Amino acid sequence: MTDAGTVLVLAGRFDPTADLAIEELNRRAVPVFRADVSEFPVGLALAAGLTGNGWRGTLGNGRRTLQLERVRSVYCRRPTRPRLPEGLSADARKVAEREARLGFGGLLTALPCRWLSPPGNAADAEHKPLQLRIAAESGLSVPRTLITNDPDAAKRFADDIGRLVHKPFYPVRGIVDGSTAAVYTSVVDPELLPHPDIATTAHLFQEWVPKAHEVRLTTVGDRLFAAEIHADSERGHVDWRSDYESHTYRVCEPPVEVAAAVYRMLDRLGLPYGAFDFVVTPEGEWVFLEVNPSGQYGFIEVATGMSITAAIADYLEGET
User: Fold this and answer.
1) Is residue 190 reached through a cis peptide bond, with omega within 30 degrees of 0 on the bond before it?
2) Do the strands 247-252 and 273-280 form a parallel or antiparallel pair, or are they unpaired?
3) Which helix (H) or strand (E) holds 122?
4) In CATH terms, is domain 6-116 a member of 2.60.40?
5) What's the confidence (pLDDT) of residue 174?
6) Can you tell me the distance from the alpha carbon of 46 to that of 284, in angstroms, rounded to the nearest whole number?
7) Residues whose CB falls within 8 Å of the CB of residue 193, separated by 6 or more in sequence, listed in order
8) Are 60 and 104 in contact (CB under 8 A)?
9) pTM for this structure?
10) Fewer CB within 10 Å, N- or C-terminus of the chain?
């Protein structure tokens, strides 16, 4: 272990993925301070001053205090929005939330340490249109794609391409009739096109790519961890996230040209971490679907034994 300070973990109270990394860092006796943006300002007290060319001060939660100048790295795992004091008007809440984001969040991003992943870069990388363009420019194969709010354009695309799928730009989850529900990739019935609902917002349509199986490729720094995902149900074959119970996993090696393109893409996006999803066709071609800059990996590690948590701990500890 290098004596370089504390790892700051920004994560929600329930985050099993963050828990894995924290347990590994604890095992290595690396100091960890866990917090969530939602705890500011009600549950976190911040006081920092610019001294010389750096910020010095403290972040406390009533139980422990973090010396900001001792932060060696930050693990940013989907922190939630600030929880503001009760009684603020709607306008005051809007101002307070913005000030918390720019003040508290801005101060953390100003710390001279490594991030997994830098929040600005990660936010940019969430945009699927940007992902797809950079993936293609980096040398990855990508499906033919249409983004539209024009029902007639969707119909023309279907007529030209054939079998289509529709997917949300960002995960859609909620509660319906008391049960958890989510929107996954779905096959489009061409008989329903053109459909007037398409005009209500932006929609993403892609050609259906025939699948032998899919691959989740997790990258941490300069290390790659690839696992085949074989789904044995019809809905899992369309989108494996919709039916985890049907999966079997197998460790695999990405083709050299795919690995090189993945590294180019991460470099363009400014990300040290990415959870990539690929379709592998019956002919063996790897087709890029998306990359999640803060994607979960625990289910892959449990199923395959690959040491992804150790790689994350290495990165946060400062090892290459």
Assistant:
1) no
2) unpaired
3) helix 119-125
4) no
5) 66
6) 53
7) 151, 154, 155, 158
8) no
9) 0.90
10) C
Helix, strand, coil proportions of the chain in percent (round to 5)?
Answer: 35, 30, 30
- Mean pLDDT over all residues of the chain? 91
**Phi and psi at residue 8, to the nearest 5°:** -90, 120
Residues 6+ apart with CB under 8 A from 64: 33
pLDDT tens track for 177-207:
666 656 778 889 988 999 999 999 999 999 9
CA distance 284 to 213: 10
Q: What is the pLDDT of residue 142?
A: 98
Total residue length of the chain: 320
Delimit the domains of the chain by residue range.
6-116, 124-141+209-317, 145-207
Residue 117, token pair as written in the block: 């992943």
Q: CB of 67 within 8 A of CB of 46?
A: no
The CATH code of the domain at 124-141+209-317 is: 3.30.470.20
Q: Cα(first)–Cα(last) distance of the chain, in Å?
A: 13
